[in-house]
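Please complete every field before forwarding. Incomplete forms are returned to the sender.

SECTION A: IDENTIFIERS
Entry label: holo-102
Bound molecule: zinc ion
Molecule representation: SMILES string

SECTION B: INPUTS
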Amino acid sequence: MKIYCDYCGTQIDTDKDITCPHCGAAYADDDELKTEQKRQERQLLLGDLDEKMHRIQEQEIMKEFEKHRKEKNLELIGKVIVGALSLGLAIYVMCKIGAILG
Ligand SMILES: [Zn+2]
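SECTION C: PREDICTED COMPLEX
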C-alpha cells in the first residue's frame, strides 16, 4: 500500500520500500499503516470466521437431514414389522378357525 512519510511527507510504497526513500525514516509505527494492517487482519479473521460459520451451518443441515432420513427409515421398518405381524396373526386365526370347523 501507499502511505506518506510522517517526517517528510514523501509517498512510500510499503510493498517496495522498507524505510522512507527520501529521508530514510522507518514507517513501522506509521498510524496509517497500522490502521490498514489492523483492518486487513480483521477482514482476514472475519472472512475466516464467516467461512467457518458457513461450514458449521452446512454440517448442521446435513445432520438434520440424516436424522430425518433415519427416522423415516425406522418408521418404514416399524410399519413393515406391524404389517407382517398382523398378517401372521390373521393367518394363525384363520388356521385355528379352519381346524375348529374342519
Ligand atoms: Zn521521509
